[in-house]
Amino acid sequence: MRLRLLWVGKSQEEWLRDGVEEYRRRIGRYFPLEISEVREEKGAEAEIMREKECQRLEKSLVKGSRLITLDERGEELTSLQFADLLGRSRDGGTQELAFAIGGAYGFSREFRGRAHRTIALSRMTFTHQMVRLFLVEQLYRGCTILNNESYHH
Fold first, then answer.
1. What pLDDT, in 10s, does the model give residues 17-75?
2. Exposure of 14 by Cβ count < 10 A (0-12 exposed, 13-18 middle, 19+ buried)?
3. How many domains does the chain have?
4. 122 lies in a domain?
5. What secondary structure letter does DSSP report for 7?
6. Range of the domain at 129
7. 153 domain residue, yes or no
8. Which of 24, 85, 140, 148 has the fewest beta carbons closer than 10 A?
9. Angle (nearest 5°) at CA 111 between 19 and 18
């Protein structure tokens, strides 16, 4: 199974880019991982920005990808439940599991409807930049849980 991370805009802070890269490297021991950044839309109404950004996200998806969107209104999972989601996807023959982080105004209705599942990392509001780091850390944590490694404890 391959993992794909999709998000809107570039990671601005060097320390965040470094953190994402560190976890990307670690995850690579377990799954191939690709990150696709799409251009952030600016200077339009929120709905138009959402639509254009989601069209770009859609183009970054590989046909047959199983899409999981991240949204603060999504289902909250424990780290063990998240690891189980990864394991069931892997063992169920999913070829590519894609996680999408939207722009400042979230996802279009159409893109949300395409998602297999929507999850929340927290009910708290985080910057989209921070969510990237939190997601890759949880992916790595999930990998170590699936492999009975000590990182989780």
1. 999 999 999 999 999 999 999 999 998 899 999 999 999 999 999 999 999 999 989 99
2. exposed
3. 1
4. yes
5. E
6. 2-148
7. no
8. 148
9. 5
Averaged pLDDT for residues 145-149: 97
- Give me the CATH number covering residue 85: 3.40.1280.10
Q: pLDDT tens-digit profile of 69-95?
A: 999 899 999 999 999 999 999 999 999
pTM of the complete model beyond 0.85: yes
Exposed, middle or buried, 129 (CB in 10 Å: 0-12/13-18/19+)? middle
Are 133 and 16 in contact by the 8 Å Cβ rule? The answer is: yes
Is residue 38 one of the residues assigned to a domain?
yes
Rounded distance between C-alpha atoms, residue 142 and residue 45, angstroms: 38
Instruction: Check if the beta carbon of residue 95 is closer than 8 Å to that of residue 82.
Output: no
**Which spans in the chain are helix H?**
14-27, 46-60, 79-91, 109-114, 128-146
- For residues 151 and 101, the answer to whether their CB atoms sit within 8 Å is no
Residue at token pair 């996680």: 99
Which of these, 7, 8, 9, 30, lies nearest to 83 by C-alpha position? Answer: 30
Cα–Cα separations (whole angstroms), residue 147 to 75, 84, 93, 150: 24, 11, 18, 9
| 146 token code pair | 């699936």
